[in-house]
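Entry for NDP complex. Fields follow.
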Amino acid sequence: MQTQPTASHFINGEYVEDTSGTPIDVIYPATGEKIATVYAATPAIIERALSSARAAQAAWGAMTGTQRGRILRRAADIMRERNHDLSVLETYDTGKPYQETSVADATSGADALEYFGGIAASLTGEHIQLGEDWVYTRREPLGVCVGIGAWNYPTQIACWKGAPALACGNSIVFKPSETTPLCALKVAEILFEAGLPAGLYNVVQGMGEVGAALVTDPRVDKVSLTGSVPTGRKVYAAAAEGIKHVTMELGGKSPMIVFEDADIENAVSGAILGNFYSSGQVCSNGTRVFVHTDIKEAFLSRLAERLGTAVIGDPMDPATSFGPMVSKRQLDIALGYIEKGKAEGARLVYGGNAIDGDGFYMQPTVFADVTDDMSIAREEIFGPVMSVLDFTDEDDVMARANDTEFGLAAGVFTRDLARAHRVAAKFQAGTCYINTYNDAPVEAPFGGMKNSGVGRENSKAAINHYSQLKSVYVRMCDLEAPF
Ligand code: NDP
């Protein structure tokens, strides 16, 4: 497959190059080989992207929702038709196994385009009768949005931000992570092929400085970031200078509680999905697995058996179920946490090592006997490192589960219906699961509480974050004034 893109950026409906920007090598995580080079956006490229986005927005915002939605739905169809090629590219960009990318990335992007394409025609204001007078509200676009992506789901993030932004009548400039610059360009290509007018979906490459330049530009009305909490703090503060709208999808250290009455097989499945999918590089992962002491050893032994069946290897092989980390840097971070876990006294029960070779592979890793104060239980690792903690009492485990700066996700496994809902209600997290983990359908709001974020992606809730309400008071009789 051709992995070198036509050019680094996609602006005003066409590929654009400027080789005077800093070169960014794209590395295939499975082999460490360079598969493409793109160039970071120069000030001239950033200017071109923002002025195109600004110029194109008004006409797009004035179209009917039906017209806008039709284009997004057509783009969804094209994405689905090209699922294989897009999935292969996602695998090159991230290293995630084709077994995952073929069902979770372009498909999820297409779902977002289809969902927001479908909703576009039904975006309305309301009528509020006040005696003879009345107020009506208009739901209006924000203007120019900036999307900044993390590297774990490059296609999905480009669509989760682009689809609601466009449905609401905005334009967008998207900056992918420098680690995974390839997939968003394909999203832009597809949108234009589907009939999106030029200038509405632009992609510019670059590091944090490019993101920062976009966020502070006075022409930008909204910023949506998917990234870590430290970056979120910086971007939120920069957006605050211009009183811009924000959506912050940030990190997590989410709890998963497995009660003594849980179906152990399902709970193990949840722990696997919530710790090792995408080699653990998922923001909402349930990396603090609290297991009731009555079933702890049964849970751990079944988990180890199931982990032994993971197929680690060439991500392009459809049989492979566990791929490399996205980068050497991310691999080293995860391995560093394994050393910390050992030094702090956790019991290594599975994995724990890098896998020899040129790719950035490591074993799925499980620590047991983890205590709340250990670094591996407090800090986001963003790698395949699961911490198993013991508990016996529901109130106690709830307090411990919520004792974190993060609040992205949380899960509970139990057969007790009342307990499941009681626990879900008490979780301080934006996205909760009962007897499952990490499902993220476009119909459901997704986002975090506490330091994990502000705003929600997906679902009807996202509309509130990509549009603004104007109210218009209409007086039907003469107007009195004091003088
Ligand atoms: P980072 O926070 O390092 O980067 C996120 C994006 O922000 C990148 O495109 C980065 O550019 C850019 N950036 C960095 N500094 C600035 C700045 N000052 N101004 C504007 N943009 C900037 O996150 P990672 O890419 O390492 O992704 C992992 C993190 O993302 C984890 O914490 C994870 O939990 C979180 N995440 C959250 C999700 C959610 O929905 N809540 C989903 C997925 C991931 P570059 O890196 O190219 O320099």
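NOTE: The chain has a mean pLDDT of 98.
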